[in-house]
Amino acid sequence: MSGETHSRATSIHQCFNLIYVYLYHTGCLGCKIKNGKELYCKKWYRLYSYIYRSIYLTGLIGGFLYKIYDEELNEAMMGILTPVVKVILTFECFICPISYVEVTFYMDWYCDKYLKLANTLQSLDEQLKMNFPSIQWNYHKSTRKYNPMTVGIYGFYSIVSTIYIFHIAHCRCGWFSSTILSLCYACVTGAPAFAGFLFIGNMDMLRLRFRLIRKLLQLQFVNKHTKSRHMHAEDVAKFKFLIVTLNQVFCVVSGSGLFHDFAITTSLGYLLCSKALDTKAKWYEYVFVSLFMVPRIYKVLTTSIYGYTTQKERKNCSREFVKIESNFKKSTIIRQPLEDFLHWSMHNNYSIKVGKILNCNLSLIFLTLNSVVNYILIYIQLQFQQNSIVNRFMNNVELITNDAEVL
């Protein structure tokens, strides 16, 4: 995308333009940008999203079943896999469409709420701009951050997913079915991932606005300018209410995405460890499996970090009001509305959630990585037990054969 396109960005919606395009064409979110200032949805857009979903799910499930029921393709794909790897592959084929259906269903169900969230955020920006004309939102900077990121991650993930499917297929004769399967797999697994990136982007926007209000309060506090402090309290309250809407739209989406990332990372981590125990494994197999894990790990890290920084800025913004109240104890005009706001804020301490109960902060990194390591160890233990059973069976067969020869 050219710099001219970036310079035309005049709203928050344009910052996520390519994410919206990708989610629209993967059947996840049927909305478009109108005149660069408003996000809207029509019934036809939702109908198109249903068609996209049907195509991708049919291609994924149909392609996999075709490879299973074709004897040659089945032997090429399943014949060389260990039972544990077959279980992992079956689990991935089971959880992948379920996660996709769940995320697309919730994004469609809460589409109106998300439109309200995005348009309210844009209107609050315009209101702050009217009250403080010196504010420069610099939407083009956010556009330069999110649009190239979308293109890069989509291209990287599509290429790696295609190689992954062809690597598992182990058969050049089924290249057409492998191509269809890889494209559908990239869309079905990519849609929940990009819904998660949209969640990250909205957290980032809230973070920047909490920080802006905090800096405005600091300037007014230093200069003893008290004219619009009550208005800032209303602004903070409105942005805090947006956290509630953000949780309603994305809590299930982010929770489902986190579970899917955990499942894929665990499976690939086990494959990486099993290849380390295999003397016949090639060096490029390690590189490939590692590259396939990168987008998932990156999303978990960015979700945790942006959730932590957003909630940190929210708390810092509230602390500025406490400082102002302590500095203007003798001014009833200033102190009374501030006390009302702080009392309201104390009883409405909203936090960003992943799922229904998990706070979106740095503890998610430890929780995810700890769970991944534990399940990888369980998989390795199962593999060792399987190898032990196979070795005992082969030894018993050899003993029986030797006894038969002696007799």
UniProtKB/TrEMBL annotation:
<protein>
    <submittedName>
        <fullName>Putative gustatory receptor 47b</fullName>
    </submittedName>
</protein>
<feature type="transmembrane region" description="Helical">
    <location>
        <begin position="50"/>
        <end position="68"/>
    </location>
</feature>
<keyword id="KW-0472">Membrane</keyword>
<feature type="transmembrane region" description="Helical">
    <location>
        <begin position="175"/>
        <end position="201"/>
    </location>
</feature>
<keyword id="KW-0812">Transmembrane</keyword>
<feature type="transmembrane region" description="Helical">
    <location>
        <begin position="362"/>
        <end position="382"/>
    </location>
</feature>
<keyword id="KW-0675">Receptor</keyword>
<keyword id="KW-1133">Transmembrane helix</keyword>
<feature type="transmembrane region" description="Helical">
    <location>
        <begin position="151"/>
        <end position="169"/>
    </location>
</feature>
<feature type="transmembrane region" description="Helical">
    <location>
        <begin position="88"/>
        <end position="107"/>
    </location>
</feature>
